[in-house]
User: Fold LRR receptor-like serine/threonine-protein kinase EFR from Ananas comosus.
Amino acid sequence: MKICIWIFKTAGHSFNLQKRSHICRRIAFFAFLVMLMLLLLIFFIFPRLAVSVHHSNATDLAALLSFKSLVRDPDGLLDRSWNSNNTSFCTWFGVSCSPRRQRVVALQLEGLSLHGTISPHLGNLSFMNRLDLSNNSLRGPIPHSLGQLPRLASLALGHNQLSGRIPSAVFNMSSLTYISFIKNNLSGPLLTDTVDNITIPHVQYLSVESNQLRGSIPSDFLLRRKDLQYLSLSTNQFRGSIPEELTRLQQLRVLYLDRNSLTGSIPTSIGNLTYLTKLDLSSNHLSGVIPPVLGGLTNLQWLTLGSNYLTGGIPTSLLNASMMGLMDLSDNNLTGTVPTEIGKSLPHLTFLGFGTNELTGGLEFITSLSHCKGLQRLHISYNELEGAIQIQSEISAGAFTNSMLVEIASQGRSQQRLVT
Assistant:
C-alpha cells in the first residue's frame, strides 16, 4: 500500500490521500485475484491435465495388454516385444504412435498366425486410424466397441475365423474408407440397423467376400455411398435382384456379386458405371439377355457372367470394350453365332470362354484370335459350332506369345489342345 501511495506522489498526481488509498486498495485486490488464479492453475489445473494425459496413455497400454492376453502367438513376436517393462508401448512390434501425444494410431498385426479372440478393449484406442488383424486365425465375434473409434479409417479383419453378425456400430464410423471382412464365418444380413443410422459416407473399399451373409442387397445403403470404388459381396447367400441403386455408384471400379443366389435380369442401367474395370456376376440365377450397354464400358477389363441362365446372343456391342482381357460367358443358354471380329476388336484377351451354351455357326472367329497375342485359354466346349474339332488348323503356328490351351468337345467327349 505504501509503495502505491509513493508512486502517486512521485508521479505528481493531485489526488488527496484518501482517494489515493482507495485506488491503491483496488489495485492490491486485483493483484490478489491474479495471484490466486495463478495458484489455482499451478496446483489444480496443470496436475489434472497431467493426470488426464497419463490416464489416456495408460488406457492405450491397458487395451494392448488386454488384446495380448486373449491371443496365442505361435511365433513369439508379441511375447518378446509386448511387455509392460518396455519404456514405451510405441516401440512394440506392430504398434505405431503419434509423435506428439504418444497415442496409438495404428495396430498392424497381419499374417502372424495369431489364435484367440479380439479384445473389446481395442475400442478404447481412441486415436487409432488403422487396424489390421488380417491373415490370422482369430475367432469369435467382431467387438461392437470397435464402432467407438472416431478416427478409424481402415479396418482389415479378413482371412480369419470370425463369426456372428457384423456389428451395426461398424457402419456408424464416419471416418472409415476401407473395410475388409473377406473370408470369415460371418452370418446374418449385411446390415442389422436401419439405413438412416448408417454414417459411413466416405467408404471407398468394402469387401465381405466369402462369408455366410444372407438376405437381399440393401439398396438404400448403397445409394448413399457415393465414394465407393470397390464392392465385393461375392461367395455369400444373398438373394433377390441386383438393385438399380447399385448402378448409381458412378465411382465404382470393381463389382463382384458372384457365387450368390441372385435372380432377375442384369439391369440395363449398369451402363452408368463408366469407370468399371471388373464385373463378376457369375454363379447366380440371373436370366434375360446380356445388356448391350456393357459394350459402352470402355474401361472394362474383366467380364464374367458364366453359370447363369442368360439367353439370347452375344451382343456385338461387347466388341467396343477394347480393353477387355477376360471374358467368360460359359454355362448359360446363349444362342446365335460368335462375332467373327472378336479377336481383332479385343486384342488384349487372355481368356475367352463361352463353352456349354447353344451357340451355332462356323469358326470364322478363330482366325481373328491371332490378334490376341496374350491369349492363354479358349473354352468353347459343348456348343453346336461346326468343325470345332478342327480348331488347331484355323490358327497359324506362332500366333501367340504364350502357349494357348484350347478346350473343345466332340461327340460328348471333352478334349484339350495346346496351340503354340
